[in-house]
Specification:
By secondary structure, the protein is of the alpha/beta class. The protein has one domain: 2-enoyl-CoA Hydratase, Chain A, domain 1, CATH 3.90.226.10. β2, α1 and β3 form a beta-alpha-beta unit. The longest helix has 16 residues. The chain has twelve helices and nine strands. A six-stranded mixed beta sheet has the order 1-2-3-4-6-9, with helices on both faces.
Length: 273
């Protein structure tokens, strides 16, 4: 398996990985934390996408979350405080910053990816949805690039993929404001290709995956590569810049205030330092 994670799907604790009828389904399974991501969850998402890419039987991938959320971003209490935060700063300020490994695994997966967005997809949860080739939203879905509220910038999903999907001006509005939008607005601006009643979401996602999976696997892989080449820029270049910039922002007073205000459930007071 490529990448830095050597964990097997059978050992996953935070993600369910299932393969049926040539379709791999990755379900983030931390419902008590609204599927917020800790280090283990990031590693399992990376490993899940790499397992799907390496499995010749898999022709399409669905990523979703255990109700009630798709993914509410990083587990702020665990990832943005204490030792985990220090580890993140150390990685991001390394001599040669690299893109987030889970993002690389998702974006380099050579099988078509469908995000079945069943609830809140905010922060890195929205990034994960943006890494997919196709997004279907349930009526309960919410989307938000809320990084600006924490004194940070988005990952490669918001900065690299979102402008190509909804246009530069709308992407700028979502990134600069941190506004959260519902499924109807996401459909209107082209962020998702379909909005469906919640009870029908997985049925619709599996039906679409089935229509994709019956096609020739090699042609599917090259079709996806062609779309990537013509629609987006260089992942490694923009990903390295994002990581380096985040390394600086993680050390600012405004970032610490953004985290504190979230944990204390109050309005933040930013000072530009």
């Amino acid at each position: 398996m490529q990448g830095g994670v050597k964990i097997a799907p059978a050992d996953f604790q935070c993600v369910r990985y299932e393969v049926s009828d040539h379709v791999a389904t990755l379900t983030i399974d931390r419902p008590d934390r609204r599927n917020a991501l800790n280090r283990r969850a990031y590693d399992e998402i990376e490993a899940g996408f790499r397992a799907a890419a390496a499995d010749a039987e898999v022709r399409c991938v669905i990523v979703t979350g255990a109700d009630p959320a798709f993914c509410s971003g990083e587990d702020v209490k665990e990832m943005m405080t204490g030792e985990e935060r220090d580890r993140s700063v150390a990685r991001l300020t390394s001599v040669r910053p690299e893109p987030t490994p889970a993002a690389v695994a998702a974006l380099e997966c050579d099988k078509p990816v469908i995000a079945a967005v069943n609830g809140a997809a905010v922060g890195w949860g929205m990034e994960l949805a943006l890494f997919a080739d196709i997004r279907i939203a349930s009526e309960n879905a919410k989307f938000g690039e809320i990084f600006i509220k924490r004194g940070l910038i988005s990952d490669v999903g918001g900065l690299w993929r979102l402008p190509a999907i909804v246009g530069p001006a709308k992407a700028a509005e979502l990134l600069f404001t941190g506004d959260i939008i519902d499924a109807a607005e996401a459909l209107r601006i082209g962020l998702v290709s379909e909005a469906t009643p919640h009870a029908e979401l997985m049925e619709r996602a599996r039906a679409l995956a089935g229509r994709i999976a019956v096609n020739p696997p090699l042609a599917l892989r090259f079709m996806k590569e062609g779309l990537r080449r013509t629609s987006y820029g260089d992942l490694r270049e923009i990903g390295g810049w994002v990581s380096g910039t985040l390394g600086k922002l993680f050390q600012t007073e405004d970032h610490r205030e953004g985290v504190r205000s979230f944990l204390e459930k109050r309005a933040p007071v930013f000072k530009g330092r």
